[in-house]
Amino acid sequence: MSRQTAVASTDIVDAHVDEEIAACLNLDTPKSFFLFAGAGSGKTRSLVTALQHVQTTLGERLRVKGQRVGVITFTNAASDEIKRRLLFDPLIDVRTIHSFAWSLIEGLNHDIREWLRVDLAEDIAKLNVDEAKGRKGTKASTDRLKKIESKTKRLQNLPNVKSFTYSPTGDNSGRDALNHSEVLQLTAHFLQTKPAMQSILTGRYPIMLIDESQDTNKHLIDALFAVQAKLKGKFILGLLGDMMQRIYNDGKEGLGQGLPPDWATPGKQLNYRCPKRVIALINKVRSSTDQQHQQPIAAAVDGVVRLFILPSDLANKPAAEQKIAAYMSRTTGDEKWNEPKAIKTLTLEHRMAASRLGFLDAFSPLYDVEGWRTSFLDGTLPASRFFSDQVLSLVNAKQNNDRFAVARIAKAYSPRLTQEALRAAKDTQEHLKQVNASIDVLMELWKDGANPTLLQVLRCVAKHNLLEIPESLQASASEESAEAVASDEDEREDRQTERALAIQSFLNAPFSQIGPMMEYLSGDAHFDTHQGVKGLEFDRVMVIMDDAEARGFLFKYEDLFGGKAAGEKTVESTKRLFYVTASRAKESLALVAYSSAPDRVQSFVLQEEWFNADEVVVGVPD
Ligand SMILES: Nc1ncnc2c1ncn2[C@@H]1O[C@H](COP(=O)(O)OP(=O)(O)OP(=O)(O)O)[C@@H](O)[C@H]1O
């Protein structure tokens, strides 16, 4: 047999999977399916292929009935990508779980109120029992009493809420707002208990496909299974995922065990993404969890993997990581390891990326306000968005001498260029000239290479009324108000909320940090978190494993690398995270473990045969 034929035959072992799924997607003989397979096996691709199949075979039939295919993805970015790949066809309704849940229950105000009444009363009763048992005067007791008070207030306010509000991407802090977890619980509860809701779901979406379903909220998954069991002639549920990539607590443990016998369960063996060496590593890592063993495709390159073990108290970690990149370049012969932007570097915590990329001063204050975190991370928090979308765009346009862009931005955002403002101006030309002059005054802040703070920029913008100042920045925008706040130390605690303090601290950061920060938040930077790259792939990956960064108890690399026995919760969850990060690499992979016991890490990985001795480098390479 020629090599050519051998190659072709090994690469088609998974070809049947898309056909099997297509056969399930038949509204006359509906069949649910469960496609769980390893990293890089083409699950997302199979999802898109399945949807294209529906477009061509069922599109007309669904459209006539006003029905759509529901697709749940894990992130907004994944939703956008799938929509794009399906040419934004309205037949396919792609959403995140929160958006999907809210679309089902929005407006059911009476039912939501009744559910909340019971839920809040139960919570309060439980807190009261705990409080009666617990010690008084402790922090736990204070927290409990605060919770009892706020839940009681909320319960009392319920009759006044006309319609509940919710934003899947917002902070939902208003009095009528539901929080993220309530929306998921409500939807699951309604789907489990209300036949009308089950009919609405299956009437709207006779087919529902869920990507990354190992991390999809367990209550919703249970509810969808229940609906499928009840209405199997009218509803196809397709779950895609990989239990080895379950990295959030929300997902259902043991998903896939005890599936109904009439479900299709196609499997995949190939990994289309990773080089041979990475596939061997992730197979080994996975072998203690399940027996899924992947094969490389015929065209797969060998690839390079190295583990660097460094002391956790190393003084200059970013410098060490640069040396590691240089070492990788020499070892792989790939020059691109010398270009920081060509490497995807993964940190456990956003703050570590912020510090390595030089925007920690702007990042930390806003990130630390819990209620702002979601909108800040997705780039929609007004305080940061004002600087990125408006001020930075204007300043960049001006610095590039792009007159058209300056005019466009000013026209879009400046209160001095609204239709009313222009109409009110006696001499329009003169008015425009003055606006331009104000922009020039703003630009003086950068004169001779100066690096103004956000506060200086804000004040200048406000003084000249160049842009609309968002509410959260207004108190700081004029010099008088800020001085009044600062002068009265005694009452400071009372008058300044956590948020005002965060804004003050944010505004002390240099304006130059806004650009890199927004690049990072938009996912375009060469840093990301271990969890944030789920579903993505990169040529060169550097995974930084430093428990000091994690500040949490969910993941502990020290435990994974011999600190604790296999089977312990943190060992297993960290192993899954390690599997996710390592399997992002398309060409080469540098794993950087900071440890308080480098010897233990070394003997563990060699004993487990995750690496060969010559793949492990202890200490900073020269
Ligand atoms: N049948 C195929 N032929 C060629 N390339 C493929 C095929 N299936 C997948 N790929 C490629 O392999 C890579 C991984 O595919 P995909 O992201 O769909 O895998 P996945 O199983 O969803 O991965 P993960 O679980 O790791 O996120 C992508 O670059 C994709 O284009």
How do the helices and strands line up, and which of them pair or pack?
Elements: H1 3-11, H2 15-24, E1 33-36, H3 43-64, E2 69-73, H4 76-85, E3 92-96, H5 97-105, H6 109-133, H7 139-157, H8 180-193, H9 195-204, E4 207-210, H10 218-230, E5 236-241, E6 270-271, H11 276-286, E7 295-296, E8 304-311, H12 317-332, E9 343-347, H13 350-357, H14 360-367, H15 373-377, H16 382-399, H17 403-413, H18 419-424, H19 428-443, H20 454-463, H21 471-477, H22 479-487, H23 492-495, H24 498-507, H25 514-521, E10 527-529, E11 538-545, H26 547-550, H27 557-563, H28 569-582, E12 585-595, H29 598-607, E13 616-618
Bound molecules: adenosine-5'-triphosphate.
Adenosine-5'-triphosphate binds next to helix 3.
